[in-house]
């Protein structure tokens, strides 16, 4: 499925400095259940990392707020892949609330960002997010608990493919992990219907989130 065009709009140069919060869940899924969109954005030579016909799918709802190069909401699905003998991550499905974020993600790093209409609400201990975009209707209700282990710092390398272009970039993620109970509704039919009704292997909230996105690779 081709991406809808986005208006030309200035966006910050790489890398982007982003901060805010996130809620995410990890699902175990059969490779055969994955939508074609995830395979379409694997670079040539990349293979999904899995075992016995199953792989991991990480679904994250991220809020980038004040202090970020761009402020916007984001919902993404990412899977681990192997490319040239190294572990990478490919973002196969992603929606954002910002035209500059969509344009920059596509042009700088070949990330297939689509536009969506987000509504985000918070209450003490809770995060509620709704996303609508065409046939997509996703909602999450997250109950975020106390701070868990010490702050996490995770380096990742993205491997992307969009419009016949391969994008390789590094990012650094850090934040304070919190236990979370997350109830997702992915809508059916829709592009995330393949996740509907699945129970996460684990869920996590991140506060004091800081992301450096789009560092060059060696």
Summarize the structure.
The protein is mainly β and 218 residues long. It is built from two helices and 13 strands, in the order E-H-E-E-E-E-E-H-E-E-E-E-E-E-E.
Helix fraction bin: under 10%
Query: Structural class from helices and strands?
Result: mainly beta
Anisotropy-based shape:
globular
Low-confidence stretches: none
End-to-end gap: 32 Å
Helical segment count: 2
Beta-strand percent range: over 45%
**How is the biggest beta sheet arranged?**
13 strands, mixed
Number of strands: 13
What is the rounded Rg?
16 Å
Arithmetic mean pLDDT:
94
SSE topology string: EHEEEEEHEEEEEEE
Provide an overview of this structure:
The protein has 218 residues and is mainly beta. The chain is built from 2 helices and 13 strands; from the N terminus they run βαβββββαβββββββ. Strands 1, 2, 3, 4, 5, 6, 7, 8, 9, 10, 11, 12 and 13 form a 13-stranded mixed beta sheet that branches. The longest helix has 11 residues. It is globular and about 45 Å long.
Entry keywords:
mainly beta; 218 residues; single chain
Itemize the secondary structure elements and their pairings.
Layout lengths: L15 E15 L5 H5 L6 E2 L1 E2 L2 E11 L7 E12 L2 E11 L2 H11 L3 E3 L1 E7 L2 E8 L2 E12 L4 E11 L2 E21 L16 E14 L3
Parallel strand pairs: 6-7
Antiparallel strand pairs: 1-4, 1-13, 2-5, 3-4, 4-5, 5-6, 8-9, 9-10, 10-12, 11-12, 12-13
């Amino acid at each position: 499925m081709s991406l809808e065009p986005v208006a030309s709009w200035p966006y910050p140069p790489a890398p982007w400095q982003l901060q805010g919060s996130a809620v995410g869940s990890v699902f175990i899924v059969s490779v055969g259940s994955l939508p074609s969109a995830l395979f379409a954005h694997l670079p040539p030579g990349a293979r999904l990392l899995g075992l016995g016909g199953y792989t991991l799918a990480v679904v994250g709802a991220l809020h980038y707020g004040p202090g970020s190069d761009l402020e916007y909401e984001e919902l993404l699905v990412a899977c681990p892949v192997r490319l040239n003998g190294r572990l990478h991550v490919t973002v196969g499905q992603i929606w954002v609330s910002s035209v500059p974020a969509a344009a920059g993600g596509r042009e700088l790093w070949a990330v297939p960002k689509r536009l969506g209409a987000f509504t985000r609400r918070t209450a003490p201990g809770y995060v509620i997010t709704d996303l609508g975009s065409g046939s997509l209707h996703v909602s999450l209700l997250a109950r975020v608990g106390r701070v868990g282990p010490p702050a996490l710092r995770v380096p990742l390398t993205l491997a992307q493919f969009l419009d016949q272009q391969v994008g390789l970039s590094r990012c650094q993620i850090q934040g304070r992990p919190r236990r979370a109970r997350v109830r997702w509704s992915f809508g059916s039919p829709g592009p995330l219907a393949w996740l509907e009704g699945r129970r996460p292997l684990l869920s996590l909230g991140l506060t004091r989130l800081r992301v450096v996105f789009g560092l060059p690779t060696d």
